[in-house]
Fold this protein.
Amino acid sequence: NLACMEMLDKANTETFGIPAPNKVPLLVEKGPFVVVTGHDLLDLEALLQQTEGKGVNVYTHGEMLPAHGYPELRKYKHLKGNFGTAWQNQRDEFDGIPAPVVYTTNCLMRPKDSYSDRIFAAGPVDYPGIKQVGKDRDFSEVIAKAIELGGYDEDVQLTGINDGKHMVTGYSAGTILSVADRVVERSEKRR
């Protein structure tokens, strides 16, 4: 398990850079948007590349929150923030939103009718009646759906855990180890 986690970390950091702490807003700006949930950073990057310059913002959800720590993903200015909280809240949080949701490698709970027509799956995620993005990572149908739905008419402030208006992510092993000498020094002073 540890060897697998090390390989995943290496793949992510070699591709997207060393994560750094980042304050992530829970504000959804007016206009078209897409919510991406799951773990697959390559799917997120493909979506960001394909939405660039199209007036469609992208928000993470659940396990995709750590994407905001990676410098190569943060360079996309339309990666705006995080939508909602944890994966198990998706049925309530996606209820009636005016945007498509892309599920990558994560748990998909039986969708409610209020949003089942705007779900897209990438990778191994599947559910009866859900459209697949495909192995070529062509998100054109997702983008068209976001533009068609139009998003919110005005900015919407969501709240996270404990009614917060932002979340913080990016405290990777590399970030922690980069300040380890200071932590050790301060703890020695307290003895």
